[in-house]
Amino acid sequence: MSRCGWRTPSLPSCPRKSSTEPGGLMEARALVVAHPRRAASPYLLSGLARCEPCNKALTAAEAKSGRYTYYVCQSLLKQGSGTCDTPRLNAKSFEDIIVSNIRDHILTESNIRDLVKLLDEEMDGLAREQRQNLWIPSRLIWKRSSAS
User: Do 84 and 53 form a contact (C-beta atoms < 8 A)?
Assistant: First the structure.
C-alpha cells in the first residue's frame, strides 16, 4: 500500500533479451559505423565500390583543375602509377550507371511489393507482441481492482 492508501499491483516484469542473445534489441538497433571520410563524402560510391584486380576501395579524387571528379583505386593513389591497371572512372558517369542498374534490377515493382509484404508481416507480429505485453498487466490490474 502506498502512503495515500492506494493499492499498487505488482506487475510481473517481462524478461528482456540481452544484447548477447541473438535478436537482442541493442544489436538490432546498433548503428553501422562507417569511416568518417566515407560518411562525409559527397560522392555516392566513395569507399563502397571496389577495384576488381586488387580489391582496394575506389574513392573519388578531383582532377588538378577541380572541374572533373574520378573514382580512383586506393592502391594507385597511395602507391603511385604502375600499381593498378584500373583506369580512372568519371564519377558522374559511373554513379549514373550504378544507380540505373539498381533501379532496373533491384527496385523493381515485384521486389518492392515483396518488401512491403515482408514489412507488413513484421509490423503485424510486432503489434501482436505489444498487445500481448499490454494485455498481461491490464488483466492483473483488472483482477486486483475487481477483488477489492
Answer: yes
Which of 106, 148, 136, 103 has its CA nearest to residue 15?
136
Grid cell in block for residue 126: 510486432
1-28: pLDDT as tens digits? 445 555 544 444 445 554 455 556 666 6
Distance CA 70, CA 64 (A): 11
C-beta separation of 49 from 38 below 8 A: no
Q: Would you tell me how many other CB atoms lie within 10 Å of the CB of residue 73?
A: 26
Q: Which helix (H) or strand (E) holds 17?
A: none
Radius of gyration of the chain (CA): 27
